[in-house]
Specification:
A three-stranded antiparallel beta sheet has the order 1-4-8, covered by helices on one side. A three-stranded mixed beta sheet has the order 3-2-7. Strands 5-6 form a two-stranded antiparallel ribbon. The termini are far apart. The protein has helices at 10-13, 33-45, 100-103, and strands spanning 56-59, 64-65, 74-75, 79-83, 88-89, 93-94, 98-99, 109-111. It is built from three helices and eight strands; from the N terminus they run H-H-E-E-E-E-E-E-E-H-E. Helix content is 18%, strand content 19%. The protein is an alpha+beta fold and 114 residues long.
């Protein structure tokens, strides 16, 4: 799929985490109980001192699109944090995915829990 110029909003073009299977075919998609607790702990403790709460975004198991040359490629990290963006998409909606080339900001940190 080729991106238009200017790019279409991700909610009109790209699938969300609910539309696609896991990246790993063997992954049953059923995390253990700690897999649910650890991202919440990361969210609660990720407090960048130079950014107000409304200017950083944290997510768990959300599609992260990272290459505009391959717009269907994504990763779904267990947790990631982005500095300098609103936690809301277009300042009003919850994000259903994060598209780096549309936001212009890559995640500051991404974590995969094992």
């Amino acid at each position: 799929m080729i991106q238009s110029n200017p790019p279409l909003p991700p909610k009109e073009l790209l699938p969300t985490m609910y539309d696609l299977p896991s990246e790993t075919l063997e992954d049953p998609g059923l995390p253990d109980e700690f897999h649910l607790i650890q991202p919440d702990l990361l969210r609660l403790t990720f407090c960048p001192p130079d950014y107000p709460e409304k200017r950083f975004f944290v997510a768990s198991d959300l599609n992260l699109y990272y290459d505009p040359r391959h717009p269907q490629w994504y990763k779904r990290p267990d947790w990631f944090g982005v500095l300098g963006v609103s936690r809301l998409y277009e300042e009003k909606d919850l994000r259903l995915s994060y598209v780096t080339w549309q936001e212009g900001v890559n995640p500051f940190v991404a974590i995969e829990l094992i």
